[in-house]
TrEMBL record:
Residues in the signal sequence: none
Taxon lineage: Bacteria, Bacillati, Bacillota, Bacilli, Bacillales
Matches recorded under PANTHER family: HAD SUPERFAMILY HYDROLASE-LIKE, TYPE 3, PHOSPHOSERINE PHOSPHATASE
Protein's name according to its UniProt entry: HAD family phosphatase
Top-level lineage group: Bacteria
Taxonomic source organism: Cohnella thailandensis
SUPFAM superfamilies for the chain: HAD-like
Record-level Gene Ontology MF annotations: magnesium ion binding; phosphatase activity
InterPro entries: Cof, HAD-like_sf, HAD-SF_hydro_IIB, HAD_sf
GO cellular component terms attached to this protein's record: cytosol
Amino acid sequence: MNYGIIALDVDGTLIDDHHELRPRVRSAVRAAAERGAEIVLCTGRGTTSTLPMLEQLGLSGTVITHNGACVVDSMTRQVLHQSVIPSAAVERYLDYCRERGYHFDMNTAFELYVESLDETMAAVYKRIFVDPIIRDARESGMPEGTLKISIFALKEQLDELEKDWAKWTHELQTVRSGDFFMDVQPLTASKGTALESLAKLRGVPRERILAIGNYYNDIGMLTFAGHGVAVANSPDAVKEAADEVTVSNNEDGVAVVLERLLG
């Protein structure tokens, strides 16, 4: 199949568990781009954290960030699309986290705001190329243009949070983007819908779209794509949603797929 768009999740998929882009994966992705496929990083990360990954690949183009809430042209830094959170709808989520001491950040297209920053979280942000802006917790509302709230806590704490929030009536959607991360964002935002919009803009039918991911926030793009692939380190629900399961991100899963399908 001559794929027109190849959508790749980043953490847990494109990079390994040491947060490194493995040489074989980089070569395979670049080879796919040289054959004419548009490589689209489609991630829960923010834009400023995603663009360095595209640069490591030696590529430019469009990135889908914040779980589909933002689409950006990497060359011009132009925001092509964004879904903004209504400020009034998010306060109870933030209050829940504040009461329990869970760390959270507030994301606009290019900036990330926090109300506190300890050494552990500072190291996390540094690893993903983000320089947080510390915001006074007494300020009302959220930063203008907030697209996503990300909550960082222990897996057991987020499991409990999910059970608590399952009892709520939601004006926003909650997306588990990793064992230690929960995202809150507009109902209209998802990787799948953002990828569908980009495909229409490019005139690429879904049959010519390949998507590779590893977590629950990837299911939308895996099911929309003509061929969706889950890496072996994915939860069972993600594997079941995919057309194929490949080896893990620590075993060059992206490269294995690209080399076979495009070789």
